[in-house]
């Protein structure tokens, strides 16, 4: 069984999946907790402190750490934190891998479909397309560039460009559900922007494939198959929650007043292709939105 170190592993459910298959899971955290099943190790990115014991006998690393991109307004200091928590953390990680002469069987780094830019077009973006020209694209580009150096120390390296994750454990749905339950759910802006999404089970499967399957190498868009606009997403969410969907769309300018430039994340969106995964034999458990929403919401 493999030894897997996850940075920021307190977020996604990848840990549970790895444990269920008998792997040893270690987590690098700013606030490690004692635990028998998962060993938690301390790191502090600003102080460049890291518990080197986490790297002993290591087979794989998954880098998920990063402060929430949509959690706060993008002030200059927040922008710096968004970048530093991903890029400086990666540099620290790589320096210890180098120092300890660790050789990995695989390295998988998180990324985001924000790479392609905050715009609404009819283009369907592939992994080979260029990035966009805005703050989010820049974050994603710097994040991905920070993964270059680790390639020297790993048999293979993958990057998972993730869409909006549908999970009962957190993320976008947790913010939307109370609003829709109260009958106040509505589309955002024109509602015509696409909203790429992925069910958490499928995202975990993408991480498992990129970690353990030698055929999976390079960048993958973790996006489900059904392309859906913001209006359709909102309508389907209301239907699954058995709530009416009649509220007028939230005007784009109002969101911009409240959220500043971050509003563009909600008001724009293009389609993103998952063809590379499909061509590699990946099968989505939740290719369609309705089933994905029903599964997530039924477990609440
Ligand atoms: N969820 C989504 O919809 C989505 C979509 C696209 C991309 N992604 C990316 O996928 C990765 C994992 O997503 P997630 O939803 O699991 O994220 P999450 O729940 O926000 O967890 C991220 C982890 O990063 C660590 N972290 C937070 N702020 C940090 C900081 N300033 N410095 C260092 N570490 C910090 C935290 O670990 P500790 O508190 O233990 O240190 C936390 O567990 C993230 O990088 C995210 O941007 C997520």
How would you summarize what this structure contains?
Helices cover 35% and strands 17% of the residues.
How confident is the prediction overall: mean pLDDT? Answer: 95
Low-confidence stretches: none
Structural class: alpha/beta
Name the shape in a single word.
Answer: globular
Strand content: 15-25%
Any guess at the CATH architecture? Answer: 3-Layer(aba) Sandwich
Helix content: 25-40%
Largest sheet: 8 strands, mixed
Bound small molecules, which ones? NADP nicotinamide-adenine-dinucleotide phosphate
Per CATH, the superfamily is NAD(P)-binding Rossmann-like Domain
- The helix count comes to 10
CATH class: Alpha Beta
CATH topology: Rossmann fold
- How much is the radius of gyration in Å? 19 Å
Give a written overview of the molecule.
By secondary structure, the protein is α/β, with parallel strands linked by helices. It has one domain (3-298): Rossmann fold (3-Layer(aba) Sandwich), CATH 3.40.50.720. The protein has helices at residues 14-20, 76-99, 135-145, 172-181, 200-212, 230-240, 252-259, 263-267, 275-279, 289-298, and strands spanning 3-7, 24-29, 38-44, 49-50, 60-63, 106-112, 124-125, 157-162, 164-166, 197-199, 218-222, 271-272. Helix 4 links the parallel strand 9 and strand 10. The model has no long low-confidence stretch (mean pLDDT 95).
């Amino acid at each position: 069984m493999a030894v897997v170190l996850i940075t920021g592993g307190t977020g996604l459910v990848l840990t549970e999946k790895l444990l269920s298959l008998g792997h040893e899971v270690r987590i690098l955290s700013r606030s490690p907790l004692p635990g028998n099943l998962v060993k938690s190790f301390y790191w502090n990115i600003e102080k460049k402190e890291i518990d080197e014991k986490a790297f002993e006998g290591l087979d794989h690393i998954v880098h998920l750490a990063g402060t929430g991109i949509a959690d706060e307004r993008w002030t200059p200091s927040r922008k710096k934190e968004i970048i530093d928590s991903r890029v400086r953390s990666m540099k620290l990680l790589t320096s210890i891998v180098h120092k300890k002469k660790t050789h990995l069987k695989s390295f998988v780094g998180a990324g985001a479909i924000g790479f392609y830019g905050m715009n609404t077009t009819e283009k369907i973006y592939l992994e080979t397309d260029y990035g966009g020209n805005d703050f989010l694209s820049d974050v994603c580009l710097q994040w991905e560039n920070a993964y270059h150096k680790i390639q020297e120390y790993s048999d293979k390296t993958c990057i998972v460009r993730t869409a909006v994750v549908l999970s009962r454990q957190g993320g976008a749905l947790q913010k939307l559900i109370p609003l829709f339950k109260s009958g106040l759910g509505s589309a955002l802006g024109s509602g015509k922007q696409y909203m790429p999404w992925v069910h958490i089970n499928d995202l975990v499967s993408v991480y498992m494939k990129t970690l353990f399957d030698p055929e999976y190498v390079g960048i993958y868009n973790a996006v489900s198959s059904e392309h859906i606009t913001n209006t359709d997403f909102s309508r389907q969410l209301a239907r699954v929650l058995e709530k009416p969907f009649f509220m007028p769309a939230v005007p784009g300018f109002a969101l911009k007043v409240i959220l500043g430039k971050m509003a563009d994340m909600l008001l724009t969106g293009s389609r993103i292709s998952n063809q590379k995964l499909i061509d590699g034999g990946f099968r989505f458990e939740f290719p369609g939105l309705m089933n994905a929403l029903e599964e997530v919401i039924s477990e609440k």
